[in-house]
Design goal:
By secondary structure, the chain is an alpha/beta fold. Helix content is 32%, strand content 23%. The strands form three sheets. Strands 4, 13, 14, 15, 16, 17, 18, 19, 20 and 21 form a ten-stranded mixed β-sheet that branches. Strands 5-6-7-8-9-10-11-12 form an eight-stranded parallel β-barrel, surrounded by six helices.
Length: 475
């Protein structure tokens, strides 16, 4: 929903602006006495306790997202009388942190990996008894020897549901040489990209027209050693209700039906990830409708082709962890540079802490933590690096940013919400950042052994000494 540019001389508060523009309060946001609460957390109290800049992870949100998706798939299966099973996988590349993965594992999920070092995480999780050798581990990506060797090691040590998803024709030969036990296989189908992309077909996976021949020439007849169990597809655009998505989904469904007639072992379709998350208070997405349609399309095609319905796998990463995190900053000061632009300078950098805002123009949900009862104005947020691209000037629902005016006394605090996926991985957690801007302190909020909500410091703000050590100035 677009906002009409406000008259800055009207005596309207920021709270008035939000309530006039959106349905507010919402599930995870509410205000009391002019201050913001995030999933019931009083953010101002956490700021007073820990200071800013701060990264905040609210662990219970991870389980809430998983339960929500599982229930919606259960609803769709019941509605369509679907005969397969549903398997929820967490895509580790969204956030590899142990507290994220271990929280997700409390909710009976499976895992998807992308690189060789993911397998070392799998081993550690098994040593800590967080997983068993029965869980599904879907191994994606274009694989180097270091990756395939580790996958083979898992299979040979008894992880019977590790499924290497073949990305190219040569990959199968690596497992033939190194895996000593019967194992399952998947094949990734290269999706056609959107018309707006600079290339036509995804670089990842097999061309769809090559898969039947590859199966007949390389897999059929070797069922005692390896079996094709899964077809996999992922669309960069995500799961959206448009012609492009349904066209690509139906391609893999139809390919499954063709293959199933000659490959009885094939029993699963993996539709990847791609559920969107809320990056604006105006966010609207009918998850249940989309799941109903996906399940219904698969069943309809299988009935038409007279083949059994496949098990359905998903690999939700951003959806699982994205809405569990916030980045919170203080506004250090205001700068009026011309008649049109009012800058609010924050005590960190967008390039270093929210690199998606800089690299791909991502918009996150931006809200003030306090001063909701103050008048508002149009502003541009600036980071403290010396880079001209270190700024944030528009929200997802409107090409402007409005925040409360800075008055004397208490500083203004602002939060970027639902930032839990990819930001730390892209920025290089704990490493050297642009202009040597330190990584903020990281605060975790979760339940203790007695179920009580507690908060603790996971990582202190990065020090100059630690950076000097990385750079080789000190030993």
């Amino acid at each position: 929903m677009a906002i009409n540019a406000p008259n800055e001389f009207m005596n309207n508060t920021y709270a008035d602006l939000v309530k006039q523009t959106f349905n507010y309060p919402q599930e995870d946001f509410e205000t009391k006495d002019g201050e913001l609460y995030f999933n019931g957390l009083h953010l101002k109290s956490l700021i007073e306790k820990y200071g800013t800049p701060m990264k905040l992870t609210y662990l219970p949100k991870i389980g809430m997202q998983i339960k929500k998706a599982k229930q919606m798939f259960a609803n769709a299966f019941k509605r369509h009388k679907y005969e397969g099973t549903y398997n929820y996988c967490y895509c580790t590349k969204s956030s590899h942190f142990s507290f994220v993965v271990e929280e997700a594992l409390k909710h009976e999920i499976h895992l998807e990996t992308s690189y060789a070092y993911d397998i070392e995480i799998i081993k550690k999780l098994y040593e800590k008894r967080k997983i068993t050798k029965d869980m599904f581990i879907i191994c994606n990506g274009y694989k180097q020897k270091s990756y395939t060797t580790r996958i083979a090691g898992l299979l040979n040590s008894g992880f019977k549901n590790v499924v290497p998803v073949l990305d190219n024709k040569e990959e199968l030969g690596m497992y033939k040489r190194s895996v000593k036990v019967p194992f399952k296989l998947g094949i990734r189908v290269a999706a056609e990209e959107e018309p707006t992309f600079p290339f036509y077909t995804s670089r990842l996976g097999f061309r769809a027209r090559d898969i039947l021949e590859f199966y007949v020439d390389n897999i059929e007849g070797n069922e005692d050693r390896f079996q094709l169990k899964m077809l996999h597809i992922f669309l960069n655009k995500g799961i959206k209700d448009d012609i492009y998505y349904w066209s690509e989904l139906n391609k893999i469904i139809n390919l499954y039906c063709q293959l199933k007639k000659i490959c009885p072992e094939l029993d699963s379709i993996n539709i990847g990830g791609g559920f969107p998350i809320k990056h604006s208070l105006a966010f609207e997405y009918d998850y249940q409708f989309m799941i109903n349609e996906i399940v219904g399309n698969i069943k309809k095609a299988c009935k038409k082709n007279k083949v059994p319905m496949p098990n359905i796998f998903t690999e939700f990463g951003s959806y699982t962890v994205g809405e569990s995190m916030a980045h919170i900053y203080s506004v250090l000061g205001q700068k009026i540079q011309n008649d049109r632009e009012c800058w609010y300078m924050i005590d960190s950098s967008f390039i270093t802490t929210l690199p998606d805002t800089w690299g791909i123009g991502e918009k996150f949900l931006l809200l003030p933590v306090n001063k909701w009862d103050q008048e508002y104005q149009r502003v541009v947020l600036g980071g403290i690096t010396c880079d001209s691209h270190d700024y944030y000037d528009s929200e997802e629902h409107v090409n402007e940013v409005f925040l409360p005016k800075i008055a004397n006394g208490e500083p203004l605090y602002v939060g970027f919400f639902h930032t839990g996926a990819y930001q730390d991985q892209i920025s290089g957690y704990g490493g050297i950042k642009h202009c040597l801007v330190p990584s903020p302190k990281h605060i975790i909020v979760g339940h203790d052994k007695n179920g009580k909500l507690v908060d603790w410091v996971y990582a202190k703000e990065q020090t100059a000494q630690s950076m000097l050590k990385i750079l080789g100035y000190v030993k």
